[in-house]
Amino acid sequence: MQLGLVKFVDKYAGSFACLVLxxxxxxxxxxxxRFNPEKAKxxxxxxxxxxxxxxxxxxxxKSLKKKFPDSEIEILATARNKDVYFGNKDITKVIEIEPGFxxxxxxxxxxxxxxxxxxxxxxxxxxSAFVSFFIGRERVGFDHGFRSLMYTRKTRxxxxxxxxxxxxxxxxxxxxxxKAIALGNLNFSKEDEQEVKNFxxxxxxxxxxxxxxxxxxxxxxxxxxxxxKERYAKLADSLLRKYxxxxxxxxxxxxxxxxxEEIFIVMDTKKRVYxxxxxxxxxxxxxxxxxxxxxxGNDSGPMHIAxxxxxxxxxxxxxxxxxxxxPFGKGNAFVYIGKNICDFSPCINTHKGQVPDCFYRRAxxxxxxxxxxxxxxxxxxxxxxLNRKAGKKSx
Length: 395
Fold this sequence. Notes:
The protein is an alpha/beta fold.
């Protein structure tokens, strides 16, 4: 089912289902879910959507495992984000499910009251909350909307803190701590790493090179998060001129191949720049980005991947706020001037289901006003500050 249709059905059918169940459920049904969370042996974490968002849930999962060291922690995920949890030692099992209300209800039927504790890390989906009611004795989630009627423990979604801490708030409702200084590395197989090595050997890219990863794309849900392709072309040219030993690898999905090709056409420099868009799986992308010395990208999955892999990362922001979604961890940075330029920025509020493309028409000169306000010189200055030691070595 397409993402837009899933969200449409969930908004109306899912919200109505939560409201009805919230009204008709008996006190006995509600109390049957109550138990001492200290005894939780089987825990399910629900996170169904974006790669970047899923990455920021990892510290909360670590917090849960620390609190419940003898428990089994399973993750309910979809094909698009399941690899984020691959090889995570805190996780017993990753369950893949097709997104959609009816698929989730089938899962609920098969797993009625199977789990001692559900931690619903979806901020907005009604279906995840509805299903959690049937499969978990104790249920933790965010307290906004009719979906909140499904939970036994709730916490406010604090949109004035990083999403890492918003998810840690959920873990804290059952005694988990709220400490996090890093996201934690994303795992991949030896086969994945070999595919990356083959690519680097073919392109004559050495691990000794000053490798700069650039991700010019963004999720289909909000294309206005993309910095203009002409700016990326100019940025890449500027980086190659300044850092003589730099090699740039453009990273993206198969849907972003055309975008990267358009950037290549506009660039002045054709040497020391490589196109990796669409050639890697998600886990192979984890491996490729881990090879990078530095990374620049829009507010997107690859940006969060770079931060998780310990790469010095710069995120470019406009429609979304870096308060919640900046590349997490020491040594990372962001560029955001949207609130000084655009009356609407930030206009994305994921936890409220507000993900507009842009409030200005695409034909308007003001379309992507907040992203267009970011100039190449500002990004270059931020990059130089972030990569002083590596930069000197690469000249």
